[in-house]
Amino acid sequence: MALRHALASAVCLLLGAPAAAQIVTPYAGEHDSFTRLVVPLPPGTGWSLDPDGRTRRLTLDAETLRLGLDRVFRRIPRDRLASVTADGATLVLELACDCPIRAWEERPGLLILDISDAPDQGPDISPLPAVTPRPALPRRPDPLAAARAAGAALARSRPALAVAPTPAPTEPTEADEALQRLGQDLGAILSTALGQGLLDPAVEAPVSATQVLSGPPEDPAGFPPNMRISSVLDRADPSRMPDPPPPQHCAQSDVLDTIIARDVGDFDNRFSELSRALYGEFDQPDPQVLRNLAGLYLAAGFGAEARALIDAAETPLDGQDFLLGMADILEDRSTNSRLLLAQSLDCGGAASVLAVLAGAEQDRIREQADSIALRFLNLPDSLQDIFGLDLATALIEAGAIDAARVVAERLQRSPWIPAAQIALIEARLDQARGLPRDAIARLDHAGGTDPDTVTTRLDLALDTQEPLDPGYLAQAEGLAATERSAGSGPDMMAAVIRLHARSGAHIDAFAALDRLETWMPETGENRRMIADLRDTVWSALAETGTDFALTETVLARDDWRDPALSDTTREILAARLLDLGLVLPARDLTTGPAGQARVLQARAALETGDPEGALALLGDDDSASAAQVRAAAMDRLGDHAAAARAFAELGITNAALRAAILAGDWRRVEELSSGQTDAATIGPLLGRDPGHAEIVLQQETTAPAGAPDSDTAPPPDTESDPLAPDASLAADPGAVFDRLGLVQRSSTLLSESARLREALAPLITE
Q1: Residue 56 belongs to domain spanning
Q2: pLDDT digits over 441-477, tens only?
Q3: What are the entry keywords (predicted)?
Q4: CB 365 within 8 A of CB 356
Q5: N or C of the chain: less Cβ packing under 10 Å?
Q6: Side-chain-facing half-sphere of 93: CA atoms under 13 Å
Q7: Which of the four pLDDT bands, split at 50, 70 and 90, describes residue 17?
């Protein structure tokens, strides 16, 4: 996406901004039979050359170009090209002879004009005097002589510091051929740079045409790299900055681009040719044929054959570690060569693509994803078909969605990729883009039954929390059994177990877990995987399972005692078991030193009739759950008033009412019941001692409707109603009724009833 934005911005700038004038500077070089004029142009610039005459016009189709002519005659005489002038974007060439000109575009942006000698017209029969022919230039002057002349001129230009003694004459020594060849090659390269204007001589000495060397060395590949001179014209794109030197670990990585065969369509015939030519005289393999045959194997996907051939070579091949790493990727082997290839992400070419498949870091893959996708498109078609699926998957996992989309679009045009595999890649792209339901619909419509597709479908069901057909789960479990020895089998079974646990099929989840445990060898990673799945299943059972299913499973299995279960799962399971009255299993689960585990331990102690132990376990824990257990323990110990206060603070009304009644705290009972009963019938009674109920009810029933409040009511008529209290007793209605002795008798009966309830309370709670 960033690359697209950058390209779009560049196009907008080019279209919208005014074009600035660009200066083009032609330069020339002299050769034996022709003079070469080089005109560097912007790529895509059109041009035309007048065909005849000694005045030739080179017209450039660019109005913004300006021609600089200061370098044209710096290295050439005026024997063939007499003068050059510029008329806007037109170059006017005045020839000194009827010289033919051959013009062509060597590569985009580099226009070449070769001005050759005039053709031989036979003997001159005209009365005009014959023109003296120009002496022929030597084809290859001695570069050592030119170097000595330059050195002598440099020495003459410097003042002499001291007079050195004349050395004694020595006998001439035989010249070293290697040094002579080195000097010739170095002189040829220096002369090329001088002719191109890349170098200027340090001494202003006249240099004739015979002293200018032209042309590259005969064998540039064998010349030392640190002594070569290259110009901007030697690059594929002269307008681009030179590429930085590759890192040290990328040495010889370009062998992958040169050795891999580009076309394996005629594999049989090509293989037969190379096999016949592999062994020559004395049964020694030809190194070049061996390289070609290894490249054919690698391009066709035969990694094991390529490795065997490379290992059998007597001398190591160039870039052998990179070739072996590619062979190991094809065979899915983990070797040191593959690890070396995984570090070659910034080496360019095929090495960058193979580094992704070898396991390069995802952050680095994401940074170079666009260039990796473009380099993938430059691979041979056979390798694109072989590596396309794995490369798209690796790019998706690294978060490079746009680059993965480029690879996926290439796979859609391949006749060798099944439609089900393309649907899988498209579904993974939808999932990475945050469209899991589109991915599910794509797989349900065109997905296959291979392990990768089934695993992806199970993962999508887990991500979306949507139910999956039990029949599909059964098929997935069977497929996982067939793939148990591969890495996809255990992963698929793990997804099936999680889906069973989430859907409430706990019996199936435990059965699949037991099967998976029999497949896995005893390793640390496998034990962690099994423990995580077991924790998931027990947690789901404790949260959503029925009482009967939980009790049955705890009694039938013993792995709930596994210490690898998480603290959260153990606490949820222990709380459920305490609710069911299974105190002993709950005690085995609550072994933590503090927190919720201590609260559960105190609750278990309370259930076994040890309230003092429960309070000791709680200590100074002030959490809500600890406060509830502490209130229940105080109620068991007989401190009903404190228990009522604690329950009331926690908002547990029923328990607070029960404790308040046992404590005789009728005011708290009235406060707790005021929001639950009819205040007109019960509210005025609960705030008084037992025995006053009849008096209050009688007063409320005998009071006439619309009577004034008690604060303004007249004093009662004690003469007409002997039971009515006098004014001195109006503040306490029970005082009149107590004259009959009923208050004392009621209090005694209620006290005996309270003691009886207290005595029977342990039997009722147990």
Answers
A1: 21-116
A2: 999 999 889 999 999 999 999 998 888 888 999 999 9
A3: Signal
A4: yes
A5: C
A6: 32
A7: very low
